[in-house]
Structure formats: structure tokens, C-alpha cells
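User: Sequence in, structure out. Go.
Assistant: Echoing your sequence, followed by the C-alpha cells.
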Amino acid sequence: MKAVIMAGGRGTRIAALSKDLPKPMLPIDGRPILEWELGSLREQGFTEVLITVGYLAPAIMDYFGDGSGCSPQTGKPFGIHIEYFVETEPLGNAGALFRIRDKLDKDFLLLNGDVMFDIDLRRFAAFHKAHCGLATLFTHPNGHPYDSGLIIADGDQRVTQWLTKEDARPQYYRNRVNAGLHILNPELLQGEIPVGKVDLDRQILKPLAGTGKLVCYDSPEYVKDMGTPERYAAVCADVHSGRAAARNLCRKQKAVFLDRDGTINRYVGFLREPDAFELLPGSAQAIRKINELGWLAIVVTNQPVIARGEVTEAQLEAIHCKMETLLGKEGAWLDAIYYCPHHPDKGFPGERAELKIHCSCRKPAPGMLMEAARRFNIDLASSWIVGDGSRDIQAGKNAGCKTALLCADVVPPKLEQDWTATSLYNFVGQVLCGKKEL
């Protein structure tokens, strides 16, 4: 698969730092950001690259050449074949694609030249191939979904809505943001070549929402642009500390599996509507700290109300949208939500017979944890499950996790849990941070 890197913009928001350099040449740990991108591509077998250049193009072309030379910084071969397209006038972030479409006869990876990423590109490509869309977006949660564009998808990861910042949004929503990495089918570039600037998101991709041809690949891996001096500084720190590399799903991940009711939100019996959902004090701060420490935050919850016919999947989605919205307002996010809709006991009015089964996902069975481990390459032995009941503790033990029981009793139940805390906030402070307060 070829890769196309858009590296022609001026980077006006970060111009004070770039000075006489195009933004893709800003150094990260001594090497241009574009060199980091090319290195990641080469290591994963992407050796044919097209780079579109414009502003201060010679700085890029002279440094990398055709890719057959060596890095001036490390002395190591680039090991990649590079072609260029030079924009003689600004074409937006997609206009150049139409000018090079004769070189793109198969699905291709599209990147921005000012984005630091460390992701398993082969997983991304395999997902795209399996879903047979015209375009696949790399999406992830972030700490400020309230002022970000949102991607809304169905259960098969088909994008149903693309909400840009200026679009009206629902009261509650999933924290899913386009990260700026794409795999595209060249069919999108057919027809007349547009005149002037072309906006990739608004003119090419957003119109595909609701057609079944636009798919999103959710991943917690590291992707961050350098649009402002503050974000550039954050990228430098994350790369230098190893935080960026640690999130790549080719490496083992650590997770905190979270029960929902009584752990994140107040327990009110069977929760049936968003209005009854209320975050527990400190839970958003605790999850934000889990995010900051580099652990995955994954909800695993039994929802027998689905099998009992008391809540539909759409109503459960609305509850989870409220949970993600409230967490997002506090700068926290969940990397995934798993729920078991089954219930083995029969005899409820309106129950759904097809869901009245014994399954491998209902806690204390470990199915949800095992599925998350497969999807995110999680080291279960290094991970925790946190919950307020025996089912949570036993599910963790069945999966091989460490276990934490939330209990306010002076003498907590003896469930053979590894840790006991009064709240999720206290667990994170005591265990993950090693202190009593965050």
C-alpha cells in the first residue's frame, strides 16, 4: 500500500516556532517530525511514499531526496522511495490528491505531515480491508470532545454522521474524534479535477456519512498534531518520555477494567434512562488520571435489562453517550465500553428469548475482558478490574487480572480481592499513583 503525506501547508498557528522551516521539519528529539513518520512507515512495510509539498518545499526535498540516502541526523538510511508533487498554488488539504490520482490505483494511506503518530498501521489496514469501505477514518477519544468535531457510527463502525465544530450536536454523544489518518480508495478521486482549494473533510469525506461507505477504526494509539506551540511541546515531551511509543498496539497494553454502576456512576438499581445517570464524586478525576498515566480505561458491564426487555440497545447507547459526555467535560475518556446483554433466567414480561442464554460474557465469566485483551493487545496479568461486587472480582480472577473491590464497609467482604478501596478515586490514588490523594 502506498502512503501519501500532505506536507504543503504553511502552519500559521505555529509560525513563531517554525520560522524558516516548514512545519513538517520541526524537530522532535532532534529529528524532523516528517522523518519520524517516514521511519514508522518503513518499519511497517510502507516503502512507496508520495509527499505533496508547497511552502518552503526545498527544505523538505533537499533533506529527504528520493529516500535512497541517509538521515543527516542519524546517518541511517531512509530506506524508502519518495516522489513529490509540488503545489504551485495552495490547493487545500486534498486538492493535490486529484493531481496525483494517476499514481494511486489502489487503496492508499493518507497522512498529514505535521502529525506525530505511533500506531500499528497493519491493524489499521486490515480493518479497512475487512470492512470494504471507500474510506476508513482513524478515530480516538480525546480530552476535549466538547469543542472537537465528532464522528458518530453504528455498531458495525459505519459512520452515520460527521459533526464538524460548526454543526449542531446532540446533548449527549460518544467521545469519538477524527485523528487525521485515513485509508482511501482512489474511486473517491474520480470525475473532474476541482478548481482551487479542496477540503478533505467537508467536501470528500463528510458527504459519505450515512452511505455505508465511510468506516471508522477506533484505537487508543498515539496520534497528535502540532498545530499550536503548546501541542508541539506536548508532542516533544511524549516522544522523549516514551509515552507515544508505549501506546502502539504492537506492544502490550495495561488496562483498568471498570464496572459501571456503583463504580463510575451512582447505583440506582437497574438503570433504565439517561436522566437517572449521575457520576460518582471523583470518578471523572480518577479516569482522567488513568488516561494521563497511560492505562487503558475500559468499561465492562452486565446489562440484563436488555434481555429482560426493559431497555433497548438504543436506550443503553443513550445512557453511555451521557456517561462519555460528562466524562469528556472533565477531560476524561473511556477507551472502550463492553456490555453483556444476556440473562439466563426466564419468566420476565416482555423478555427477549434470543438473549435468555448462558453466555461467556456475563460476569463472572471473563468474556468481555478477553475480547478487549484481543482487540487491544492487553497484558491481563498487569491489568486491574475495579468493581463493587463479587461478579467483578471473580471475572477479574477468571481473566487473570488483579482485582480491586470498592466497599465502604469497615470490614469488607472476603472475596479474595487484591485491593480494597472506598471509591474509584481512592483506588487510583492509592494503587496507580501510590499516594492517598491525586
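User: And one key feature?
Assistant: The mean pLDDT is 94.
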